[in-house]
Specification:
The chain has 340 residues and is of the alpha/beta class. The protein is built from 12 helices and 12 strands. The chain has a 7-stranded mixed β-sheet, sandwiched between helices. The chain has a 5-stranded parallel β-sheet with strand order 3-2-1-4-5, with helices on both faces.
């Protein structure tokens, strides 16, 4: 049995390790890239740094768990976790919530991300051998008390059916969006570019659609976005970019192109890789009302607007979630407390 304070200490030590220059950590980053070319060294290092700075600091963890009055020890339950693998270690937060709550995690890893999180678990186990009893890698979930599953809208329908008899969190596909009002500065655009391009735009928190005023001039924005044109040298990204150009030409679709991203008018919030959808609006108040009704499709909103009833985030921050930023607005710790 590991007490809560011991789990916090171990996690904070892991955070310190992630900021170290250990050659083994560098090898794992390279191995992850070899396994999945979307996981570049830059992207994986960024994800590790975010975990260390925003999730695994001792003071952050301590303040976080104090809000829930978690006991030092509990009769642990078996929590199944089905992880996504669209960006490096995207499933780590669920794992963190289960471990910090004192439960046993039965993990089905994504085929796209089978190296990084197992390495972190192994590192924790080397720090304290008791940790190994908290984690189990499985190919198929059986013998569990509750489940947390993340996937596409199609897989979510399957999860809803298969896990309907158990306490569960089922996450479907959501998107990040941005609302511009025409007053944005070059600095705003540069920050927005990270919301768009971080992790090649593959995360549910990445901005995949823009809402802009009628008659909006995209030229200044496209010029700033072109500063990220080194992405076009990544083979997978370039293949998607070239394919989309050919597809839009074939379909005679209207689009804008700055050499590293394609903008096209589209109602869908989810955009194709290397492209960005946009939609014009006439009235911000009307748009806000529309977004409130579509809240279940939105992960976060990058904007300068101060909308208290929507998940607004300053430009440049969508892919820097804090430990108490819960996917799909479902408080994982509260859920796990009901399981115990």
């Amino acid at each position: 049995m590991l007490l809560l304070k011991e789990r916090i200490d171990l996690l904070s030590r892991l955070g310190e390790y992630l900021l170290s220059d250990d050659p083994k950590l560098s090898e794992i980053i390279d191995s992850a890239y070899y396994h999945n070319a979307w996981f570049t060294r830059e992207n994986t290092s960024k994800a590790l740094s975010n975990l260390a700075n925003y999730f695994l600091k001792k003071e952050v963890l301590t303040k976080w768990v104090q809000e829930y009055q978690l006991p030092q020890e509990i009769a642990h339950k078996r929590i199944g976790i089905i992880m996504a693998g669209n960006i490096p270690m995207v499933g780590f937060h669920d794992l963190l919530c289960v471990f910090i709550s004192g439960h046993h995690a039965k993990i089905k890893f994504s085929d796209k991300d089978k190296i990084l999180i197992p390495f972190l678990i192994d590192k924790l186990s080397h720090m304290d051998s008791r940790v190994s009893s908290f984690f189990e890698s499985v190919d198929r979930l059986t013998d569990f008390d509750a489940v947390i599953a993340t996937g596409s809208n199609n897989s979510a329908r399957y999860f809803d059916y298969y896990f309907s008899k158990y306490p569960h969190i089922i996450r479907k596909h959501r998107n990040g969006i941005a609302v511009l009002d025409g007053s944005e500065t070059v600095d705003d655009f540069r920050k927005l570019s990270t919301d768009i391009f971080d992790y090649f735009g593959l995360g549910c928190r990445n901005v995949s659609k823009l809402y802009v005023p009628a008659g909006y001039d995209f030229t200044p924005l496209l010029e700033v976005l072109h500063e990220k044109n080194e992405l076009i040298h990544h083979s997978k990204y370039k293949n998607n970019f070239d394919y989309n150009i050919a597809l839009f030409l074939l379909n005679q679709e209207k689009y804008l192109n700055n050499g590293c991203i394609i903008l096209r008018p589209q109602e869908h919030k989810s955009s194709r890789i290397a492209s960005l959808n946009y939609e014009h609006y006439d009235d911000l108040k009307v748009l806000r009302t529309k977004l409130v009704t579509e809240r279940d499709d939105i992960q976060c909103i990058a904007t300068n607007q101060e909308w208290v009833d929507l998940p607004v985030i300053p430009y440049g921050m969508t892919q820097q979630p804090r430990v108490n930023d819960y996917a799909d607005d479902v408080d994982t710790i509260d859920f796990l407390k009901t399981v115990s």
